[in-house]
Design brief:
single chain; alpha+beta; D-amino Acid Aminotransferase, Chain A, domain 1; five-stranded antiparallel beta sheet; four-stranded antiparallel beta sheet; 15 strands; kinase; inositol-1,4,5-trisphosphate 3-kinase activity; EC 2.7.-.-; nucleotide-binding
Amino acid sequence: VAAALDSYEMQKTKVKRVGDDAILPLLGSRSINQMVVAQVFRHTSNPLLPGPPASPPHFLKGWFSSLTLPNPRQVSSSLSPFWSHYPLNSSSRSLQPLNSFFWIKAKVTLTCRFQKNHWQKIRTMVNLPVISPFKKRYAWVQLAGHTGSFKAAGTSGLILKRCSEPERYCLARLMADALRGCVPAFHGVVERDGESYLQLQDLLDGFDGPCVLDCKMGVRTYLEEELTKARERPKLRKDMYKKMLAVDPEAPTEEEHAQRAVTKPRYMQWREGISSSTTLGFRIEGIKKADGSCSTDFKTTRSREQVLRVFEEFVQGDEEVLRRYLNRLQQIRDTLEVSEFFRRHEVIGSSLLFVHDHCHRAGVWLIDFGKTTPLPDGQILDHRRPWEEGNREDGYLLGLDNLIGILASLAER
């Protein structure tokens, strides 16, 4: 913190040292983060603010006047919503934790300049936010997965994912397999708020404004056991009928329309059939662009040409990014073909995560192993043979072959 302030932020924000005390850092190398400023001043251990004010205190407004901002008055008034949105804990006046920030305890001296051009020192204990774009980064992941599965780790370069035993089992074994470099690094299990989390490498770390694409691999995204159980205990699902209806009003049969419900096996197989999963061995689940916009409207993206157009839009003509994606996919395929783990596991519901940025950095990783299951002793999979119920083939390499072919075609255009 001190080094960052000495090198940049002290001069930019006109915050100065007072004796040997620490100083208030406004972290962020490009601009003042208004939300963080409001939280720092709002959430203090000492009762600087007796109650939830309707607007920022006068010293905050004065302090803003010393910054190089387009309109200090407008910026100050724009902070008002944050004051009511993050109320103090009335008993302890401590900061309520937020998933989108990491928090550390530090003694600081707040030095604020007033309109009259003099300085006032306020010594207190505050929770300093170390800005993390966790919430912004991972919103798209939750669109493609289970809401609330991810959490900030509190350590740079790491992320927490809610633990499931099948995924923990797979990640532990992958760390000793040839595929180690193709998956997020696994750093064990930690406890947070009474729940267990997998501590994983943050794959977006090191990218500047990353663009992200989630590609679900395989000809099916359900286990054979799921299909068997659903048939043994058939249950009509109104929610799945509504999902089917939203995509294609003509998809349900007359009987299903009359019942206004479908069974899970019927829905699962219909879902794979309308996408490219059945035909190409993969499907696009979601995309997040650098501007933060997300799209998951790929349910009926089925043909090679449709998929090619999606990737063409995703890479935005960046030939270097496309080349790196192709090289990485070929490397992953070579590694899969010699991986002992891959030969002996049915890989269902796993994705390839594509990430790139405007600096031409690009990477692809295998993620999501919650439905990856070991095969009986002595059985291995080809991962290219057509799936027939009972053979447990997943079509992973079939999908990867098609994906590489599509990106190679795009590179030739």
